[in-house]
């Protein structure tokens, strides 16, 4: 668990009724994941997103507004809505992201717009969707049908009135389904029954619009009591009139999915007169209602996706979620949440130095004598702030007067690397950069640099310069910038002349947008096949070419720092996290059984992940005739290995399995091991023995694993392994 210290946000005052103000501010304890039957009313302001949980099964009612439009651009100035909801689902499902079903109450943007984005999220899987059939297929409803088709989600639209659905111990009855053309008035409601308690979710229905006689008969059958009502249409003016409330049984608790300033005073008073306690989601950062056999307990989820301090990823008032860019199947292997009051010196050095500084001999003697200027650093309890001003650092780093405050995982003086030494993976940091108007020569950077202790990674392989022989092939990076200056400029530094003079970058991309004075999440996926870069969870550029592989096959150092001259400039870092494939035992191959949430990646190709192909677990991969899958893998060089896999298929079929040692950058095959195998109708195990070729020092060797169906019918593969044999 990522433990972020609780940030208590101030409740906003509002003017329409001091009585309301005093009533809804009753304190709730913070929700920390307790209970097996829970209704989660998420904090999405004047929109609906309600997560149902029962005995480890989950379903979602509506999904608020989207925060990404069709062009992949962010709609809101700050985070929230669909990404927040998806992240919340992943956390409460312990990463599984599985929803048994979703319910679409009506096709308005504040209910279905965000749900469409959630359904597209590859981390989330959905079995079924219940939705009223609309007479006009357009807008968000048309998108919903398209996404459901793409994700193989069964849409159920017929015979919904009084239809009952089971979720664990919950019984859910669908209501008000007969007139979808009436918009808000015709939105579908749900009666949720569990542990002898009844919850009515009213969607955007106004009380005076309900088919009261029919619905009331269902409610009366539910022991003449409503323990919780999700107020229809968010409690805006005209909702829940007194005449309608008199038709309803007793109400214990009313919950508003709204901002406290927008709840109508008359609605509030009507419900108060009905004898109900009242909670507003924005006040408590969402409300979790937990049902047990004897009582219902209500908790404050305490997540506010609309402020910096309450950033959308906080889980139960503690966690900040990693972005949706994180590939399925990875686990955390190294991180710093910066929650302490001092720097963790088991992870960071404060003597800034880099490959370029070594090549130019900038402050070389100070590096050797450990007298480099020390950074300006302060801690907030939730983050680290690297700052530069007139007093700090005590002296400039460069003759121009420019200073730098930075931290890094490699120490040039001792040739020590503190970062986990496995290669590749997913790196992410959440950063905010700011500066006063009089600050010059600004650069707030998050980057990776080749280690020392000399210029061997700067000089290219086959060349001699700066008193060393180069070990890095031309076209491979020696520095990777995820962001620099005060924008998001992604730069791959690479080509160097035989004389040891830097020539040009081998990759460059500027992300459009304003990145100053706001939190931004910067991420990189580094694999043997290439590099992908993300901003706020969305991919912005990739360098992914099997014949021009720019990713390094050696360990790199991580650096974060703020450069400036004059004024005051800051780079605040909330967290940095490093993930790697969860390989488990002695297997060196990611996604060996195709169980990463039904994703093929990091395999690539035309194979289809299928439950029909599973030997163990729930999935395998099917290859039709001519189909193939490929994966690039880092292995120790100069070592013997064994590739194992299980296959099945019709008699007389064939499958080719190969492991190829490839040359860095070009991807050219150095040698190849493998053969054609003949599957049988029952699963059989196959083997390919191979050895990796040599690389420099502790560099990794990149191999390419290929499976190709060379037969005439479908072949299934599962449980692929690469094991070292010595």
Strand content: 35-45%
The residue ranges in which pLDDT falls below 50 over 5 or more consecutive positions are 1-26, 75-80, 306-319
CATH topology of the largest domain: Metallo-beta-lactamase, Chain A
CATH class identity of the largest domain: Alpha Beta
Structural class: mainly beta
Number of strands: 43
Q: Tally the structural domains.
A: 3
Layout: helices, strands, pairs:
Elements: H1 18-24, E1 37-41, E2 50-54, E3 57-61, H2 81-92, E4 98-104, H3 109-120, E5 125-131, H4 139-150, E6 154-156, E7 164-167, E8 170-175, E9 189-194, E10 197-201, H5 212-221, E11 225-230, H6 242-245, E12 250-256, H7 265-273, E13 277-280, H8 281-284, E14 287-291, E15 296-300, E16 330-336, H9 355-360, H10 364-368, E17 376-379, E18 384-388, E19 403-408, E20 410-411, E21 416-417, E22 425-435, E23 440-449, E24 464-465, E25 468-469, E26 479-483, E27 488-496, E28 502-511, E29 519-527, E30 530-535, E31 538-543, E32 557-565, E33 569-581, E34 604-605, E35 608-610, E36 620-623, E37 628-636, E38 640-649, E39 655-662, E40 669-677, E41 684-691, E42 700-709, E43 715-724
What does the model show?
The chain has three domains: 283 residues, Metallo-beta-lactamase, Chain A, CATH 3.60.15.10; 249 residues, Jelly Rolls (Sandwich), CATH 2.60.120; 121 residues, Galactose-binding domain-like (Jelly Rolls, Sandwich). The protein has ten helices and 43 strands. Strands 6-5-4-3-2-1-14-15 form an eight-stranded mixed β-sheet, covered by helices on one side. Strands 16, 17, 18, 22, 29, 30, 31 and 33 form an eight-stranded antiparallel β-sheet that branches. Helix 2 packs across helix 3. The radius of gyration is 29 Å and the shape is flat. The N terminus is likely disordered.
